[in-house]
Specification:
The complex is a heterodimer. Chain A is of the alpha+beta class. Helix content of chain A is 20%, strand content 36%. In chain A, the strands form 3 sheets. In chain A, strands 2-3-4-9 form a 4-stranded antiparallel sheet, with no helix packed on it. Chain A has a 4-stranded antiparallel sheet with strand order 5-6-7-8, with no helix packed on it. In chain A, strand 7 and strand 8 form a beta hairpin. Chain B has 2 domains: 257 residues, Cytochrome Bc1 Complex, Chain C; 177 residues, no CATH class. In chain B, helix 6 packs across helix 7 and helix 20 packs across helix 21. The chains are: A alpha+beta, B mainly alpha. The interface between A and B is large, with 29 and 43 residues.
C-alpha cells in the first residue's frame, strides 16, 4: 500500500526538514552560547588595590603573621562593603615589611606556617617555602607570590592581587 | 563511513530504533492538523534549554532572586533574549495546548480506543498550568509576588483540604523564602519530571493507536512519518520559534517589575491566560466564590475527562457530535469573552492605569539603582535607602495629608512643587498669601514684597536660595546673593531670624540654613523650635512617628524639589 511519491519530493521534504532543524538549532545555540560564555568577556574583575593593614607597631619582629584582606567587592550583582577578599602573610623586619599572597602558587590552597620547621607549608600537596617565601620543595612551580607594600601615614599598606596558579612565571589575574 | 555505521548498528541496533521512530505510516496521510502535539514537544525542548541557561545564573533566595533576574536581563550577554524566549515559550505552550485540545476534540480523537491518551493530555494540561503558575513567581518581583499570592489563596478556598494545600505550597502561613524555594523546586524539578513521564505515556499511546484522520479521509492514502509529517512538524516548530523570537526582540525580553514588596501598593493581575478566571471572580459574590475558583473549573475538567464516554457514537463528523462539541466551543468562547472583558475593563480604568504607570516607574527606578550594584541585603534594602522611591512613599503617606506635590494631596499648608527653588522663593516673595504658599495657613503677617522691585527680589531670591547650598549642589551666583543679603538684612529682618540676629519686632520663621537638609530635617522633627517656625508653627512634629532614617529619606526626597525644572 501507500501513495507513490516522486523521489525529488521526498528529497525536498528531507532537506527542508533538516534546514528547519538547523535554523531552530542556530536560533537557540547562538544566544545560548553567548549567554553561557558571558564570563569570558568579563576580563579585569577585581583589580589590584591598596589595602591598609594598620600600624607597624602591631606587627611582631621577624615573625610571619597571617592577615585577612578586607575590602569592597562586586560579586555578580552584589556590591558589598568591607568583606573578606583573601588572606596574606606578612613579615616585618625593622621598618621593612614583606607580604605574600597566602594562596599556594601550585593549586591555590591556603598556605600555613609550620613553626616547628620555621617554614611555610601548603596543607594540600606539601609544597614548602622558606620564611623569605622561597620555594623549598613540593610541586609548586614558583616561590610564594610577593605583594607590593608601602608605608602611608604611618600605616602599612599592601597591594592585593591574585596570580594564576601553576605557571612558572607570575601572571596577575586581579 | 559505511563500515563505521555498520559497526555501530551491530553494537547498538540504532537503525531499527530510527526506523521505528521515523518510518511509521501515517494513515490518511500527513496533515497540518497533526502539528500541534509535536509543536508542544518542540516548545518543551526550547523551555528546557532556555530554562537550564537561566538556572545557570538565577539564585532562588528572597534577597537574590530579583537581583539575579535583573542581572540576566541587563548584564549577561544575550540574557534578555534567553529570558524572553523562556517567557514567551511559556505563553506559546498555553496557546498551542489550546489549539491541540481543540483539534483533538474536533477530530474526535479522544474516542475509543484513545481515551487514555486523552486523559494523559488532560493531565499534561494541568502540569503546564502548574509550570506557568510557579514560573511566574520566580523573579520575586511585584507582578509574580502578588499574582501568586492571589492564586495560592484561591487554592486555600478548596473545602476541607484547602488550608493544608495552601500551607504546603506556600511552605507555611507567610509568603517568603520557603515559598520561593518550593516554587523553584516545583518549577525546575517536580513538574518537568512529571511532564516528561506523562509525555512518555502520551506518546507511547499515540504511537500505539496512531493519529486520528478526520471523518471522510481517504484511509487508503498512507504516507511515511518521515519526511512527510516531519516536514510539517518542523515547519510549525520554526514558525513558533520565529514568533517567540520576534516578540522577544520587540519587547526586549520579559518584563521585570519592581522587587516584591509586601508593603507596597500594587494592582495585581494574573498572566493573560488566567485572566478569564480572574474576571469571573469579579461577578461572584463572596459566598459564591467557590463557584468560580473550584466548581466551574472542576466541572469543566470533569466534562473533558468524561467526554470519551459521553460522546461514544461511531461517527467522528462534527455535525453528528454537536451536543458534545458545543460545550467546548461555548466554553472556549466564554474564555475569550471573559479575557476580553477583563482587558477592556483594565484599559478603561484610569485608576488601574495610574497604578500600573506608578508600578512601571518603580520598576524602572529599581533597575536604574541596581545597575550600580545591589547591597548584600537585597533589592528591598537598596530601595529603602532611595529617597526617590522610599522617600516618595513616606512623603505620600505622611506629608500629602497637608501638602500638595505633583497635583496629589490635600492643601492646608504650602505646596511643595519646586519647594526651595528660585522660582518658588520668588513666587513666595510676590504673593505669600497665595493658596500655594501660606494662604491656607494662619500665617498672614507677611505682605507681598513687590515694592522692592524686580531687581531686589531677584537678589533676595538668590540670597535665600544660597542659604540652602550644600556640597555637590550646582553653583549659585555669589555676587548676587551678597547683594541680596544686604537687601534681606534691611528689609526682612524685622520679622525673620538669620543666624544670631533678627526678630527684634516679630518672631518670624528662622531663615538660617533655609532649604538645606538640616533645615528640612529640623522642620520635620521639630517645626516649632526657634530654628524653624517658632511660635508661628502649625505643623505637627514627626519625630515620634518616623525613624531618623525615614526622616532622612523624606528630607532628601523633598530637597530635590529645589532643583526641579518646572
Amino acid at each position: 500500500m501507500g501513495v507513490e511519491q516522486s523521489q525529488p519530493r521526498r528529497s525536498f521534504l528531507k532537506l527542508a526538514s533538516a534546514a528547519g532543524g538547523a535554523v531552530i538549532g542556530l536560533v537557540l545555540a547562538i544566544p545560548g552560547l553567548r549567554y553561557i560564555a558571558d564570563p569570558l568577556r568579563r576580563t579585569g574583575g577585581q583589580v589590584g588595590r591598596w589595602v591598609s593593614l594598620g600600624g607597624l607597631d602591631g606587627m611582631p619582629e621577624d615573625h610571619p603573621v597571617q592577615l585577612p584582606v578586607i575590602g569592597d567587592q562586586t560579586d555578580a550583582w552584589t556590591r558589598s562593603k568591607d568583606v573578606k577578599l583573601g588572606a596574606i602573610w606578612v613579615r616585618r623586619q625593622g621598618d621593612a615589611v614583606k607580604a605574600w599572597n597566602a594562596e599556594c602558587p601550585h593549586l591555590g590552597c591556603k598556605v600555613g606556617y609550620d613553626r616547628s620547621k620555621s617554614q611555610f607549608a601548603c596543607p594540600c600537596h606539601e609544597s614548602a617555602f622558606s620564611p623569605a617565601g622561597e620555594r623549598l620543595g613540593g610541586p609548586s612551580p614558583r616561590s610564594l607570590d610577593p605583594l607590593q607594600t608601602r608605608i602611608k601615614d604611618g600605616k602599612v599598606e599592601v597591594r592585593f592581587v591574585r596570580f594564576r596558579a601553576q605557571t612558572p612565571e607570575r601572571e596577575e589575574i586581579g | 563511513m559505511a563500515s563505521i555505521a555498520d559497526w555501530l548498528d551491530n553494537r547498538t541496533g540504532y537503525r531499527k530504533l530510527l526506523s521505528a521512530a521515523l518510518d511509521e505510516e501515517v494513515v490518511g496521510g500527513a496533515r497540518w492538523a497533526y502539528v500541534f502535539g509535536s509543536g508542544l514537544l518542540a516548545i518543551f525542548s526550547f523551555q528546557v534549554l532556555t530554562g537550564l541557561l537561566l538556572m545557570a545564573t538565577y539564585a532562588p533566595t528572597v534577597s537574590s532572586a530579583w537581583s539575579s533576574v535583573f542581572y540576566i536581563q541587563h548584564k549577561v550577554a544575550g540574557g534578555w533574549f534567553v529570558r524572553g524566549l523562556h517567557a514567551y515559550g511559556a505563553q506559546a505552550m498555553v496557546v498551542v495546548l489550546g489549539m491541540h485540545l481543540l483539534q483533538v476534540a474536533i477530530y474526535g480523537a479522544y474516542k475509543k480506543p484513545r481515551e487514555v491518551t486523552w486523559w494523559f493530555g488532560l493531565a499534561l494540561l494541568g502540569v503546564v498550568q502548574g509550570l506557568a503558575l510557579t514560573g511566574y513567581l520566580l523573579p520575586w518581583d511585584q507582578k509574580g509576588y502578588w499574582a501568586t499570592k492571589v492564586a495560592t489563596n484561591i487554592a486555600g478556598t478548596v473545602p476541607l483540604i484547602g488550608g493544608a494545600v495552601q500551607a504546603l505550597v506556600v511552605g507555611g502561613s507567610e509568603y517568603g523564602q520557603a515559598t520561593l524555594t518550593r516554587f523553584y523546586v516545583l518549577h525546575v524539578g517536580v513538574l518537568p519530571a512529571t511532564l516528561v513521564l506523562l509525555v512518555t505515556g502520551h506518546l507511547y499511546l499515540f504511537r500505539r493507536n496512531g493519529a486520528t484522520p478526520p471523518a471522510g479521509a481517504d484511509l487508503k492514502r498512507v504516507e511515511p512519518f518521515y519526511p512527510n509529517q516531519v516536514f510539517k512538524d518542523v515547519a510549525f516548530a520554526v514558525l513558533i520559534l520565529a514568533v517567540m523570537a520576534i516578540l522577544t526582540s520587540i519587547s526586549h525580553g520579559g518584563h521585570l517589575d519592581a522587587p516584591a514588596d509586601p508593603s507596597a501598593d500594587y494592582p495585581p493581575r494574573p498572566e493573560w491566560y488566567f485572566l478569564f478566571l480572574f474576571e469571573l471572580l469579579k461577578y461572584l459574590p463572596g459566598s459564591m466564590e467557590l463557584v468560580g475558583t473550584i466548581i466551574l473549573p472542576g466541572l469543566a475538567m470533569t466534562f473533558l475527562f468524561l467526554l470519551p464516554f459521553l460522546d461514544k457514537g461511531e461517527s467522528k463528523r462534527v455535525g453528528d457530535r454537536l451536543p458534545w462539541i458545543a460545550p467546548l466551543l461555548v466554553g472556549g468562547l466564554g474564555i475569550v469573552v471573559l479575557t476580553w472583558m477583563s482587558m477592556s475593563a483594565d484599559a478603561n480604568d484610569a485608576d488601574f492605569q495610574a497604578a500600573r504607570a506608578k508600578a512601571h516607574e518603580r520598576a524602572e527606578r529599581a533597575i536604574a539603582l541596581a545597575k550600580g550594584g545591589i547591597p548584600p541585603g537585597g533589592p528591598l534594602e537598596m530601595l529603602r535607602n532611595d529617597p526617590m522611591s522610599y522617600g516618595a512613599d513616606l512623603y505620600e503617606q505622611h506629608c500629602q495629608t497637608c501638602h500638595i506635590l505633583d497635583g496629589q494631596g490635600e492643601r492646608s499648608a504650602p505646596d511643595h512643587d519646586g519647594f526651595g527653588s528660585r522660582a518658588w522663593i520668588t513666587g513666595l516673595l510676590h504673593d505669600p498669601q497665595a493658596k500655594k504658599y501660606f494662604g491656607t495657613t494662619e500665617i498672614d503677617e507677611m505682605k507681598p514684597m513687590d515694592e522692592l522691585g524686580e531687581e531686589k527680589i531677584k537678589a533676595v531670591t538668590e540670597f535665600l536660595f544660597s542659604l540652602g547650598h550644600e556640597k555637590g549642589d550646582p553653583p549659585h551666583d555669589g555676587a548676587l546673593a551678597t547683594q541680596g543679603r544686604e537687601v534681606f538684612e534691611n528689609e526682612c529682618m524685622d520679622c525673620h531670624i538669620l543666624g544670631d540676629e533678627g526678630a527684634d519686632m516679630f518672631d518670624g520663621p528662622n531663615m538660617t540654613g533655609y532649604g538645606s537638609s538640616a533645615w528640612i530635617r529640623g522642620q520635620i522633627k521639630d517645626p516649632g523650635s526657634e530654628a524653624q517656625y517658632g511660635d508661628m508653627n502649625e505643623m505637627p512634629s514627626f519625630s515620634d512617628d518616623l525613624t531618623d532614617h525615614d526622616i532622612e529619606m523624606i528630607t532628601a526626597f523633598l530637597r530635590r524639589q529645589r532643583f526641579a525644572q518646572k
